[in-house]
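[step 3/7] fold_predict: job queued, chain A
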Amino acid sequence: MSSEKKALEDQENIYQWFRRIINYDLCIGCSTCEEVCSFIHEGKAYIKLYDVGGGLSRPISCFHCVQAPCVYACPTNAMHRDKDGIIKVDISRCIGCMACIAACPFGIPELVPPGYVAKCDLCEDLRKKGLDPACVATCPAQAITWGTGEVIASKLRTRVLKKILYTKTIP
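[step 4/7] structure written:
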């Protein structure tokens, strides 16, 4: 049984896994997240802004999905979930077949020289020091949030309730 399937069976762990979300209502498209990611990762940004039309740019990066298609598609188990729920790539096992890229509905993993896949690891080195991922820490609009599934769900519920309460029109 793969580690992904085993982890899914342990329902208690799912809400303790870390995730990151981007609130596109708050995002100002300033590219700070992309620039700091590039700086932290020696010139390679794992969160990227894309022009979505009308002069708007918005970032996208790995969502560290609970049922991650990239993990299921990887024939060598190079793409895997760590103990914190973060989808990572073991480059020593990656054969560059690009099955994970084809499986990801967001097209996030990238084939990089010399022929392995790379993607966001939520700034593993910073997290080991007790710090937030760089994109989260530097977002001037505070549009990027990260935490356990429980924390993210709570923040999403609060955001939706505020939107309902503060935009409600009186007939």
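[step 5/7] annotate
The mean pLDDT is 89.
Residues 81 and 158 are 28 Å apart (CA to CA).
exit 0
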